[in-house]
Amino acid sequence: MLTRDELTRYKRQIAVFGEEGQLKLKQARVFLAGAGGLGSTIATYLAVAGIGRLRIADNDVVALDNLNRQILHWDSDVGRRKPESAAAKLRSLNADIEVEIVPETIHEDNVAEMVAGLDMIVDGMDNFEARYVLNRVALARQIPFFHGAIHGFYGQATTIIPGKTACLRCIFPEAPPTVAPPVVGVTAGVIGCVQATEVLKYVLGMGQLLENRLLMWDGLGCRLDEVPLEKNPDCKDCGQEGG
Amino acid sequence: MKVRVRFFAAFKEIFGTGEREIELDSGASVQDLLNILCDSSGCRQKIFDETGRLRRDINMLKKGRHIQLVDETHSELEDGDVITVFPALFGG
Predict the structure, then answer these.
(1) Cβ of A142 under 8 Å from any chain B Cβ?
(2) Is residue B49 in a domain?
(3) For the segment A49-100, what is each residue's pLDDT rounded down to a tens digit?
(4) DSSP state of A95
(5) Is residue B38 part of a domain?
(6) Residue B78 — pLDDT band, cuts 50, 70, 90?
(7) In terms of residue numbers, what domain contains B10?
(8) Chain B residues close to A170, C-beta within 8 Å
């Protein structure tokens, strides 16, 4: 049931998907891995859209060189734990939603507990090792995994539905070498918004998801393209699930 | 036979185009294709590592599958194949 304030707050989007849709958003429970560049954008738009419960995991501390892109963290937050900084802003944006924080690094041993009770996982990570951990838990739990990654003016996103689409390991069998990538803040904005859009569509059951499609954003050319993807039947992460 | 190669992001600049159609002999491999595409030492340095292997920070998909899954660059091409080349993005 939506409150009178919620009906007012979300009036302009209820015009798009109705009170029933808004109630679905209120009941949705989302795990956001990372409160960095992508995570800031994703969390902001999911919070203002009224996603009922948002759990954010990150073990970093805000640094000055994060501030060109991690819009939930401000000058005064330098030195503060990222999930705490993010949660404070999100609660100010929308006091009607629940924001939970997990100030821990995501790894194989703690990820199942982190995502327990939640309906989907959104990728705001900055490395493929953690992404593979999230990919595996999404497959094990049979919940969607909304992938995004960025570099400079370039970005990519896809939506992974266990049993239906290629998983992250099908698409990228090996982790690329990890170095601190150059990133322009607007790219995190573009790709984070694509991921948040996918989450909303999934919850609402609207539109066509980025299933078996890798969306490629070229900010320099201002072009959006897509690459078709195929599931790998021999994938070491999803090949045995029978999907 | 003919294959189509699509380049994304920085590879558009490296190869000077977003897409090329290449005529190849029957039985040609991805490696043969790369040898034709990389017609300068500058280009080869951006595509291959010091061992001559495709760089790990480059993604190459053939029919929606990463070539790491289909015998790397030894993979044989077929008429009408579409190859996609794009950089490995991992930042967040």
Answers:
(1) no
(2) yes
(3) 999 999 999 999 999 999 999 999 999 999 999 999 999 999 999 999 999 9
(4) T
(5) yes
(6) very high
(7) 2-87
(8) 65-66, 69
CA A95/CA A111 separation, integer angstroms: 27
The domains located in chain A, with CATH, are: 28-228 (3.40.50.720)
Q: Which residues of chain A have pLDDT under 70?
A: 240-243
Block residue for tokens 């790369």: B34
In chain B, what residues touch A150 (CB-CB under 8 Å)? 89, 91-92
Predicted-complex ipTM score: 0.88
- The 8-class DSSP code of residue A240 comes to T
Whether residue B92 lies inside any domain: the answer is no
- At A153, is the secondary structure helix, strand, or coil? coil
Q: What is the CATH number of the domain that holds B24?
A: 3.10.20.30
Q: Which pLDDT score is estimated for A180? A: 85
pTM of the model: 0.95
